[in-house]
Structures are given as C-alpha cells and as structure tokens.
C-alpha cells in the first residue's frame, strides 16, 4: 500500500510558502534540477513503492531537458494514443476530397462504454470535425472508433512513423474488454517521444502548421485537468483562452492501473512540454491518491517554472 502524500492544511501558511518559492524560482541562476526537485522526490516515492514511472519535461523555446525519469521506457498510455488519430484526421482535412463536414454514422460495431458523450446523445450521425472535437474534449471512445473505421489503423500507424515516432503508437480500437487476441493496450509510448510530439505540435511542425493548429485546438478543449494540469488552477470546462497568464492544451489517458498526461503549458516566463505515465497495481484507494498527488506536484513545479 502506498500512503497518500498530504497537502498543507493551512491556506495562509501555504500561500506565503508558495510566494517565497516563486521568488526563488524567478531567480535566473536557479537550476532546472532545483526547480523540479519536488517532482523528482514525489515520483521517486512512487517508484520505491512499486509504481512504474516515466516522465519528461522540456523547455519549449530552447528544447532543454528539465526533467527526465526513465523517459525512454515504452509505457502503456491509454487514450494519449488518440492524438495520433487526430493528427491523421487533421492532415486529411487539408485535402479537398476529405471535407470537414463529411458525415459519419455510428454503427453497432462501434459501440463502446466509458469516456465520451456521444454514446449519451440522440444524434446518430456527426461531421468528422465534430467527432475530432469530441475526442479532444472528452476522449470520446465512440467517436474514436467511428473515425478509426473511416481512417484505418494502418493509416494512423504510417502517419506516426512518417513523423518519426518509433516507440509511440495507437495499437487498436477502443474495446470494453480486451481478449487474448487483442492488443494488450490501446496505445503505448515513450515519454521522450510524447513530450517531443507535443512540443512539435506547439511549434506547428507536425505535418504542417495547419495540421498542428487543428490538433492543438481540439486538445485545448480537454475537460480532464485531474492530473498534472490540476495544479494550473484552470476551469476544466472553459480554459481555451487561458487564465492568469497561463495557456495550455493536453491529453490524458486512463486505464486500470494506468494514468498518463501529456501537454504544453505556457506562462509569462516560459513554456514547457511535458509527458508522464505511471503504471501501478490499482488495488486500493491510497495508492491511486498517491499517484494523483505526485502528478499534482509535477504540475506545481511546472507552474513555478513558467510563471
């Protein structure tokens, strides 16, 4: 059992402490290793208690490595792999033969539960661009399967390879249950590659500027700010325009025993791309809460660096 780490109980004392830490963080001589010391401690705590951890943080402007924890390891990334599908869809929207208003019907074979809103709506058909927005906003599983039926998993794989990804892939459609003949995970990835992918999206370098902007726009709708982004203090349902000088887009992934979060966050002082994934035995609540606390701690260090 991994006990949950505790947040300070006194708001006023906590605020004063954070203000002192912010002043120290603003000192330009501070080393990144010092800035992310709390994250290393929190993630190390998880690792010592049997949780597999992988993480990477890079500076958007310089590309400098700010944090690296086993970032070469291929980890299950759950729904983060849907970003690769969104890239292929966004790239095809530049093709005059693949219109943004192409209407797709949902079929019985596409049905799947868990995340997403379309399964709860009456509309049997939606435009391709709307399905992509649903994936960005709610990681919609039904929309994912419908788009995969249109696009094809092989096309998604070829696109991922063409942009240089070797350890990151969308392996399968979304399934309620995975059998012995199915891929063991929806997606996998190395945090080094995933962090690079998000930084390249932010710079407009994935396929072309229009494709990158479409994908970043869809991801900016994401309502799941429960992990790293929980430290940014933003409204989960309305944060596209930014708040208190912070702008972001991200994609999360959740499966049994898997939590992953990757994104880009910019502030007045700097911008970063981050990617983190953890794999653990989700057998008790305290272990899960410890995972979320550690991801929150990483978010706090990101805020200190950018703000």
Automatic annotation (TrEMBL):
One Pfam family this sequence matches: Beta-lactamase2
Region spans: Disordered: 1-31
Matching InterPro entries: Beta-lactam/transpept-like, Beta-lactam_cat, Beta-lactam_class-A
GO biological process, one term: response to antibiotic
Superkingdom, natural source: Bacteria
Molecular function terms from GO: beta-lactamase activity
Stretches with biased composition (Basic residues): 17-27
UniProt domain Beta-lactamase class A catalytic: residue ranges: 56-278
Name of the protein described by the UniProt record: Beta-lactamase class A
Gene source species: Mycetocola miduiensis
